[in-house]
Amino acid sequence: MSEEGKIAFFTPEIAVDNSLYTYSGGLGVFAGGFLIAACKMGLPVVGVTLLPRQGYYDQYLNENQKMGVRYVNRTYEGILEPTGVKFKIPLSGSEVWIEVLKLPAGRFGTTDIYFLDCDIEENDALSRSNTLQLYGGSRDSGANIERKIAQSFILGRGGVRALELLNIPVELYHINESHAAFAALELLERELQLTADLETATEVVRSQVVFTTHTPVRAGNPEYGTYSDGIPMVLKMGSFGKEITSEVLRRVGGEPFNMTASCLRLSRKANAVSQKHGDVAQKLWHWVEGASPIIAITNGTSRDFWQAESFRNANTAEDMRFAKKQGKRAMLRFIEEHTGKHLSENIFTVVWARRFAEYKRPKLLFSDMEWLKSRLSANALQVVIAGRPHPDDYAMIDVWNWLYKRSTELPNLVVLAGYDLDMSKILKAGADLWLNTPRSPDEACGTSGMSAAMNGAINMSTPDGWMPEANPENCFLFGARFAASDQDAYDAEKLRDALDQVLVMYFTPGEWSKRQLAAKLEAEMRWTSDRMVSQYQELLYKK
């Protein structure tokens, strides 16, 4: 990179502090860790994202003892600073105003981050709602395909124009997940104004863009319309000039219009987020003609953000025992304050905490209730569960409610509402075992286990995402590596076997603390955002 040019990191969500409700899960945690490491390493990066003032949603336990969803408007005075930049972009035949706010470098240990906000007085009510909620909110709050496309145009087209108005020279655009695909399309439209040749214009854009893909299932990648209406929908929403025609959109994103395919065709290089995901992504997108090569750069997590000070200074097994005892006591106090339920610091504690999604299988541990009841009742183990489903995923909300109901009936089982960054830190510092149960090969990376290991929690996981790369001496793997018949039943049986074996090891004097220390040292050496960003510099950014 030149000294003058910046790397513009476009991302739909960022998690950098609990006071900023601009994330939903692992994608935001990845982005936050990336920008913290970039700041620490002096990399010339600026972040670009949307400002959803109501965030993803607030999760709470309602009066019926079921999970509730609510949206709360938030102001960010004292956190974000006005830049004085306001501008408008064409969107669906009209114009929408965007205001640019700034999180200054260093405030939460990050580089400069620019937030795009449409909830301003210059806009009508419909336009103001475009950025109000992360990913457009829920069906109950008015989410629809048009709003999701609108958000992508505000992030992509709006982000490119915002950086120009801020006089920030950009040498490289890094598109983090395909929700920001229209940044590359904005660059293509400009090149087509200079040359009528699509191939030439595409090559110019590709020289300026790199892309990170996170979703290993095609259904999870935004794709708009059917074969009859996908291109017209994007064309109408984009309010393009004469350069972007239906044929140009078709050649860039296919029909229906696939956002990831467009990113692959308009970037010079792309990356998956674990070695296994690299293989999956190459197979998943093999049909995209003219796609950029996909390499693998395994995610990391920010030690500066996630690791408690007591674990940072733990260099012996005895240090680890002491740090974990303190972390566990703090977690149990938190649980008692929020649920009234008392757990013991002397019982083996398993934590499952992450986004509630079907492929992550939050009920896998509950496949044999008699087995689980016997362990819980005998004080052999205690289980803590937390996480947020998508507000439109009624099946997973039902699972959350089912698990909560079980927690009111069974001893040593807790389900927590209100999962956020601060709660995640508490649970990782207190967990003996960090449980991860994705159905292989659907987990791209799953970085929560990395930050858990930094806080003395040992991982138990299916061999998916980053886990096959971990030292098998420092974690516990169970279940199928690839899709198989009766996979859920097979994995559930292997999980029970693995937990029974680990229970013996946990009470073996000295053995558990040594393994905790080894897992922590491995995470500090191999699974940090600092290592990850260094690899982005070397493997993705260099031409």
Number of domains: 2
Shape: globular
Computed CA radius of gyration, to the nearest angstrom: 23 Å
Binned strand content: 15-25%
Instruction: Write the CATH architecture name of the largest domain.
Output: 3-Layer(aba) Sandwich
Calculate the mean pLDDT score and round it: 96
Family: Belongs to the glycogen phosphorylase family.
Protein name: Alpha-glucan phosphorylase
GO molecular function, one term: glycogen phosphorylase activity
Provide a brief overview of the structure:
It contains 19 helices and 19 strands.
What features would you highlight for this structure?
17% strand, Rossmann fold, six-stranded parallel sheet, alpha/beta, 2 domains, 543 residues, globular, nine-stranded mixed sheet
Write the layout of secondary structure elements.
Elements lengths: L5 E5 L15 H16 L3 E6 L7 E4 L5 E4 L10 E11 L2 E10 L9 E5 L7 H4 L16 H21 L4 E7 L5 H13 L3 H9 L2 E4 L10 E2 L5 H9 L7 H8 L3 E2 H7 L3 E4 L2 H10 L9 E3 L6 H4 L2 H4 L4 H23 L8 E6 L15 H9 L3 E6 L7 H16 L3 E4 L4 H10 L2 E4 L11 H7 L3 E4 L14 E2 L9 H20 L4 H16 L2 H13 L2
Parallel strand pairs: 1-2, 1-8, 2-7, 8-9, 9-12, 12-13, 14-15, 14-17, 15-16, 17-18, 18-19
Antiparallel strand pairs: 3-4, 5-6, 6-7, 10-11
InterPro entries: Agluc_phsphrylas, Glyco_trans_35, Glycogen/Maltodextrin_Phosph
Family: Belongs to the glycogen phosphorylase family.
Protein name: Alpha-glucan phosphorylase
